[in-house]
Design goal:
19 helices; 0% strand; single chain; mainly alpha; disordered C terminus; disordered N terminus; Growth Hormone, Chain: A
C-alpha cells in the first residue's frame, strides 16, 4: 500500500478529486444499473420475484453495515488504505456477479459490491484532510452529488446494457471502473496524516449489523408481506430494540465504533434526518418516472416507451447535478452549507409537485425531473458538508458513514412506499392509475418539505477543528 509522499511532492487536489470521483461514481452506478436488468436476471436464473429482490437487499445490507465500519477503520488506520480495500471488494464483487451462473453467487457478489460503500466516508475524510481549507466544501459537494448523478445515469445505462449487450456487461463495466479506481488510489492518492488511535469495536459492529438487517429486510419486503403484517412490524420492532441496545452499548464503550455523543449533537442528528427524507424523495422518483413512461398508451397514464427510452428521461437531470454541485459548494464555502440545503429542498419540492401535476409527455417528465435533480444536487452537495462541519476531523469517517446509512434507508423506504402507493391505486385493467402517481410524487414532496423545515432549524456553525498538523497550507499544494 502506498504511503504519503513528501509534502513537496503532493499532487494538486484537483487530481485527487478526479480519482476519488471515479470510485464514488462506480459505486453510485452500481446502486441503480442493476434495477432495469432484474427481470432479465430473474428469467436467466429461473427464480422467483421474491428471490431476485435479494440482489438489491443484499447490496444495501452490506453497504449499510460496511460503510460506517470502513469509515471508522479509515479514521484509525488510514483513509487511503481502507479506500483501496473498499474498492478491491467492490471490483471483486463485480467480477463475481459477471461470472455468476446462478442467483447465490450473484447475491454474494452484490454484497461484496456493497462493501464498496466505504468510498464515500473515506473520500470525504481524504478531502477534509488533504484539500486547501477554502476548497473543502466544493470537493465534498462534488462527491456528495455523485450519489445522485450515478443513480440517475445508472437507470438508462443499465436498461441499455441489459437490452442490447446482456446484463453481464453491467458488472464488467463496474469491475473495470473499480480496478481503475483501486490502482489510481494506491498510486496517486496521498495517505492522510490524520489518525484516531484505538481498537476495532467488533461487538458493536455485529450488533449494529443485526439491527440494520432487521429494519432493511422489513422495508424491502413490506410490499410482499404487507406493511401492517406481523412479520414486517415484528422485524421493525426487533431492529429498533437491537439498535437501541447498540446505542446504549456504544455510549458505555471506551472506544466505540460510532460515537453516540457525536451523533446526538443537534446539527448531526438533524442533518441525518434531512438526508433520510431527501433520499426518500429522490429514489422514489427513480422508480416512478421510468414506470410511468413504460406504461402503454391509451390508459389514464403512460407513454409506451421501452426501458432504455424511459431511463433516458432521467439522464439530463443527472448530468445537470454535475454542474449544480460546485455552485452549491461555493455557496457553502461563503455562506455555510445550510443555505444550499434549504434551496435544494425548496427546488426539489417544486420538481416533485410539477411531476405530480404535469406528467403527460416526455418533455414534461424531463423538465420536471431536471428541476427535481437541481434541488437534489444542491441537497446532496450540502448534506455531507453539514456533517463534516459539525464533527472533529478524527470523526469524519464514522460520522459521514452513518449519514450514508440514512441516505440508503431513505432510498429503500422511498422506493417501497412509492411502489405501495401505486399498488393501492390500480385500475380495473390491472394497470396503475394516474392518481397513484400523483399521490406518490406528492408524498415525496411532503418528505422534501419536512427536510426543508429541518434545514431551516439547523443552527449556524463553523467547521469544527483546525487543519491537521500533517496537512499542507493552501500555498503548498
Amino acid at each position: 500500500m502506498s504511503h504519503a509522499p513528501a509534502a513537496a511532492a503532493r499532487q494538486h487536489h484537483h487530481r485527487t478529486l478526479l480519482i476519488l470521483g471515479v470510485g464514488a461514481l462506480a459505486y453510485a452506478l452500481a446502486q441503480t444499473t442493476v434495477v432495469p436488468a432484474l427481470a432479465s436476471i430473474q428469467a436467466e436464473f429461473a427464480v422467483s420475484t421474491t428471490d431476485i429482490t435479494w440482489m438489491v437487499t443484499g447490496y444495501f445490507l452490506a453497504a449499510s453495515i460496511a460503510t460506517p465500519v470502513m469509515g471508522r477503520l479509515g479514521d484509525m488506520f488510514g483513509k487511503e488504505r481502507f479506500l483501496a480495500i473498499s474498492l478491491v471488494a467492490f471490483a471483486a464483487g463485480s467480477i463475481v456477479c459477471a461470472l455468476s451462473d446462478s442467483l447465490a453467487p450473484m447475491v454474494v457478489g452484490r454484497a461484496l459490491q456493497g462493501i464498496g460503500g466505504g468510498v464515500f466516508p473515506l473520500s470525504f475524510g481524504i478531502v477534509r484532510d488533504e484539500f486547501p481549507r477554502d476548497n473543502v466544501a466544493t470537493g465534498i459537494a462534488m462527491l456528495g452529488a455523485i450519489a445522485g448523478i450515478g443513480g440517475a445515469i445508472g437507470l438508462p445505462l443499465g436498461g441499455f446494457l441489459a437490452e442490447h449487450t446482456g446484463f453481464q456487461w453491467i458488472f464488467w463495466i463496474s469491475a473495470a471502473m473499480g480496478v481503475v479506481a483501486t490502482v489510481t488510489t494506491i498510486r496517486f492518492v496521498p495517505e492522510s496524516p490524520v489518525r484516531t488511535p484505538g481498537r476495532v469495536d467488533l461487538v458493536g459492529a455485529i450488533v449494529m449489523g443485526a439491527g440494520l438487517t432487521c429494519v432493511l429486510i422489513a422495508i424491502s419486503r413490506a410490499n410482499d408481506w404487507g406493511w401492517g403484517s406481523a412479520t414486517t412490524l415484528g422485524l421493525v420492532a426487533a431492529g429498533a430494540v437491537v439498535l437501541a441496545a447498540f446505542a446504549a452499548f456504544e455510549r458505555r464503550h471506551p472506544q466505540p465504533l460510532v460515537n453516540m455523543a457525536t451523533l446526538s449533537r443537534r446539527p448531526v442528528l438533524m442533518t441525518n434526518l434531512a438526508t433520510l427524507l431527501v433520499g426518500f424523495g429522490l429514489f422514489g422518483t427513480f422508480i416512478l418516472v421510468p414506470q410511468l413512461a413504460e406504461l402503454p398508451k391509451g390508459g389514464e397514464v403512460g407513454l409506451g416507451m421501452d426501458p432504455t427510452e424511459a431511463g433516458l428521461l432521467l439522464a439530463p437531470g443527472g448530468i445537470l447535478m454535475l454542474f449544480v454541485a460546485p455552485v452549491a459548494g461555493r455557496i457553502g464555502e461563503r455562506r455555510g452549507s445550510k443555505l444550499p440545503l434549504v434551496i435544494g429542498c425548496l427546488v426539489a419540492i417544486a420538481g416533485l409537485v410539477g411531476l405530480a401535476v404535469l406528467h403527460d409527455s416526455a418533455l414534461q417528465l424531463i423538465v420536471w425531473s431536471m428541476v427535481l435533480n437541481v434541488g437534489v444536487g444542491f441537497a446532496f452537495a450540502a448534506l455531507p458538508n453539514l456533517i463534516v462541519d459539525a464533527v472533529d476531523g478524527h470523526e469524519t469517517g464514522e460520522a459521514t458513514g452513518v449519514n450514508t446509512i440514512f441516505r440508503n434507508v431513505g432510498g429503500s423506504l422511498g422506493s417501497q412506499v412509492s411502489a405501495a402507493i401505486l399498488t393501492g391505486h390500480v385500475l380495473a385493467s390491472g394497470m396503475p392509475g394516474d392518481a397513484g402517481f400523483r399521490v406518490a410524487f406528492l408524498v415525496g414532496a411532503g418528505g422534501a418539505a419536512v427536510a426543508a423545515l429541518i434545514a431551516l432549524a439547523l443552527p449556524r456553525h463553523e467547521r469544527r477543528g483546525e487543519a491537521p498538523a500533517g496537512a499542507l497550507a493552501p500555498a503548498e499544494r
